[in-house]
Amino acid sequence: AFYDQLWKHIDEEGYWSGNLLSRTANGSNQAHHLCIYRLTFNSGRVLFLGFSTDISASLLWMKNRCEQVQDWSAFLPTRDEFELQLDNLANESGHKDLNIVMTLR
């Protein structure tokens, strides 16, 4: 049923993106984020392009962090540091057409 829904989404939307747990050749489990895109050519030929990223280490890090009482704001720069980084990024010569849109809650 899961894969039926995955392919239905690709048929309807042209892509699918999500996290999967799969078994490797040596029998261990691997968590990865997968994006599949449907490419339709003018000739009518259809190809599917997939990108997979191993997220096992990230999930383990998050699990370990969640087990500890942690103030997540400790990972963020101070407001002054953030504004300085943003100003530097906007003023870099290679980013003259840079537009940044942010939503903060």
Structure description:
With 105 residues, this protein is an alpha+beta fold. The longest helix is centred in the C-terminal third of the chain and has 13 residues, at 79-91. It has helices at 2-13, 56-67, 79-91, and strands spanning 15-23, 29-40, 46-54. The model has no long low-confidence stretch (mean pLDDT 79). It has one domain (2-95): Beta-Lactamase (2-Layer Sandwich). The protein is flat.
Relative strand content: 25-35%
Number of helices: 3
CATH class: Alpha Beta
Low-confidence stretches: none
What's the alpha carbon Rg, rounded to whole Å? Answer: 20 Å
Number of self-contained structural domains: 1
CATH architecture: 2-Layer Sandwich
Helix content: 25-40%
CATH superfamily: PAS domain
Average pLDDT score: 79
- What overall geometry do the principal axes of the alpha carbons give? flat
Order of helices and strands: HEEEHH
Strand neighbour order, sheet with most strands: 1-2-3
Stated plainly, the CATH topology is called Beta-Lactamase
Distance between the termini: 37 Å
Main sheet characteristics: 3 strands, antiparallel
What key attributes describe this structure?
Beta-Lactamase; 3 helices; three-stranded antiparallel β-sheet; 35% helix; alpha+beta; 105 residues
Compose a concise summary of this entry.
The protein has 105 residues and is an alpha+beta fold. It is 35% helix and 29% strand. The protein has one domain: Beta-Lactamase, CATH 3.30.450.20.
List the helices and strands and how they pair.
Blueprint: H1 2-13, E1 15-23, E2 29-40, E3 46-54, H2 56-67, H3 79-91
Antiparallel strand pairs: 1-2, 2-3
